[in-house]
Amino acid sequence: MPAEPFWKTKPLAEMTPSEWESLCDGCAKCCLVKLEDEDSGKLFFTSLHCKLLDGRTCQCSDYPNRKKYVPVCVKLTPEIVATVDWLPQSCAYRLVHEGKDLHDWHHLISGDREAVHRTGFSCQNRTRTEEGVDDEDAFDYVIDWFHGPRQKPKKKYTLKVGRK
Predict the structure, then answer these.
(1) Which of 148, 155, 94 is nearest to 126 (CA)?
(2) What is the β-pairing status of strands 59-60 and 128-129?
(3) What share of the chain has pLDDT > 90, as a percent?
(4) Which residue from 1, 50, 89, 151 has the least number of CB within 10 angstroms?
(5) What is the secondary structure of the chain as a DSSP string?
(6) What pTM, to 2 d.p., does this model score?
(7) What is the greatest pairwise CA distance in the chain?
(8) What are the residue ranges spanned by the domains of the chain?
(9) What is the pLDDT of residue 158?
């Protein structure tokens, strides 16, 4: 019988750096600009991405040095995963922290790094850089697909009058 995979047997805090990095599914949703309502604390997710993110590949263009260029970039750690409320419900770090298994499309299960994109769980080709967007205009980019794949638009029906 094969051994259980590391994400089922190790807590996040005990993973090696390579195991930790391999958990990332490449969705890039953690690189999206989030807005917080100052009164209610409610978070809104936007289709604006960090200036270092390549929206086609969902990869950071300077991952090792990202904090140098984007000081507010959050480096995920087990402690941060346990406390933030902005990781998508599909995030492998969040799932492992919550004691859940990875999705079938996750590359550690499927062996296919492109599956996250094909299934619609990534930001691939759906976002634009935050650069050049004024803070007051960011709300124009709020999205409804952060926690899952993009929903297909509902059919719109037109009432046709006068036809027999």
Answers:
(1) 148
(2) unpaired
(3) 79
(4) 1
(5) -PPPPHHHHS-GGG--HHHHHHH--S--GGGEEEEE-TTT--EEEEEEE-TTEETTTTEETTGGGHHHH-TT-----HHHHHH-S-S-TT-HHHHHHTTPPPPTTSHHHHS-TTHHHHTT-S-TTS-EESTT--GGGGGGGB-S-TTSSPPPPPP------S--
(6) 0.84
(7) 71
(8) 6-141
(9) 44
